[in-house]
Known about the structure:
Shape: globular
CATH architecture of the largest domain: Alpha-Beta Complex
CATH topology of the largest domain: inorganic pyrophosphatase (n-terminal core)
Number of strands: 24
Amino acid sequence: MTRTPVDVLKSIDMLSSLSTQDLNHLYSLMNTEEYRKEERLFTEGEAGETMYIVLSGSVSISVRTQDGAVLELAEISEGSFFGEMSIFDSAARSATCFPKSDTTVLSLNANDFYEFIQKRPAAGISIMQNMLKTTTQRLTSTGAFLSDMVTWGEKARTRAITDDFTGLYNRRFLDQAGEEQLTEAKNEGTPLSLVMLDLDHFGTLNNEYGQAVGDQVILAAVAVFKRIFEQNVVAVRYGGDEFTFLLKKTSPSRALDYCNQLLKELATIDLLKNLGGAVNQVSASIGIAGFPDNGETVAGLMEKADKALYQAKEAGRNRAAVWIEPEKNLRKSKIDSLKTRNLIIERIFEAVSEHDNFLMIGHKDPDEDCISSMIAMALLINKFAKTVYLMIPRKINENFQYLLNISRFNDIGIIYNDQEPPKNISTVFIMDTPKPDMIESFPGSTAVMENESIIKIEIDHHLGADSDYSGDHGYCLVDEASSASELVGLLAFKLDNYSEMVEAFSIEEIFSRNFVLAVLTGIIGDSKMGKYLKTRREKWFYHLFSELFNEMLSQKTHQDSRNFSTMDQVFAELQRLSKEEDECFRTMMESRVSVSDRIASIIIGREAMKEINSRFDYDTIVSVARYAADVLAESSRVLSLIVYPDSSGDKELIQFRVRRSQSYKDLDLRTILSAFSIENGGGHPGAIGFRIPENEVPDIREYSLKLIKDLEALMNDGKKD
């Protein structure tokens, strides 16, 4: 039973003695206000004459320390009040307040409160006595904390800015210290070096010897850091085995001397020598960048130090490298070694796994390979359940519409070149574009390409006299190939070998039919069926991919569509698939059920699924089910649920897909897996999939309806929390 606002007021200690009549009168003087997550109610230092009572949700009360750090003093949850000092003396706000989730509050202005006291003095005095009592308790409990907090180095301050395990500073402190030291360096005209360090093969070390040994190595390395660097160096644990150092009044060449000495000291750590594993020595790869030569912002220095770190890894690890600004517009050339190619591919997949929002762009007036490689790469990233957008002209070859339908049914956004891309793009893929001045332009394109915080990954096969690099150093998969699409195919084969990454992101099938078709279209289009291949290597790769993809295609499509020999046949196949996906979507929507306002659902029974399986192939069903989940989630503005039997593998299973809308953020969908003890499933905060053996689900509809009720309950519990 839902509680009324007056019920909430009655449950508050300071109001519990009031009569129902008094409570109703008090409530009549209050305003109901709703705040979104992190939308500020008030800020420290501003004037205030209003107190608040939390009806639902919770708010954070925080203050700023002398050096600008933000520390949370308390969390105020449902049924509690805050801001009461403004009622007593209209004092300036002593803290900042913002909701930790979407929150509803009752607000009471000081003038309205004094009106209540005048009309109901006994009730007003009772409230004031209880309020003062609570306020005194709060001041008593936080007084010691506040006295610690304002002093550098005291316990509360240390907890806020340091890493508990190593005692080094944390990433939060790096943000403020970096800006302060950079400003000081600019004002004084002195150098500043930023150093980034990764322990070599730390993942392998942990897997071979266990986390306990890994922890010992980190602590031993930290001891070395403290011996080598002077006390005024800011040493930060940036991640598990990643560290960053700020060296005041230190040039990059001097920082390199420190780092080389550090590497020698790390080699003396003997924790791994007698363990019998592949990693028997502690070493590190280090990148160095300096102000003013390499950048004028902390973000810029970190980007250049990270690139130098990559160069150190590329050169064999166990070394330090200083970033040297490359010459502009270097001519593209083939990758010089298999090792370098593998490191570039590894770095590309690290970016895909670590970032969330991707933009695919190509060259102006894109051809078959440009469009196909963009879509193939988008499909590959989409397998990581990441957000991907294509940037394309409004007017393109009519044949490409079939490729764009593939994008539509695989949750890939399409942006036209007269539109601005979303503001949260973290990574740009530049596909099949010979040089920077040929990149597709769009509103804001210059800002995107010049933003150093956005990674630029380039995939291209144009080499030689009239080609220049557009991507960031270490992120350019530019090599001899029949097409850019072939290089995307190479990435797919490499991903197939990254078993841990495939498992971590629950990637079910890398070489899906749509991906195969997109790559094949690019290869056929750029090589004109293999007629214009230049080198033996290109011919070998062309035959390898075309034969392999044709073989896959013959297994994944109708028998009469094998052995493509012309572009027209490829486009005809794409057109057929586009029509099938539309028809499959309409068929699935016939099984939509309406039992919840917040969870839009499609529940397909066994007989209906037999009919769908007889008309559509497996890839079409999977693509359309995912598309349907997206459509329904946005229609409900909360969640969608898609349920259907799946007999494609060795086991008979029931497939479940849950997706949340873009506007609903209250529930991390992964909690569903743990809350319902589901083992065969995975996903990310906004989308999950899981499978249950068919013999455990005798009645699919009944099981799904119960699941919807359970999801409703889980959402309600999450809102209360």
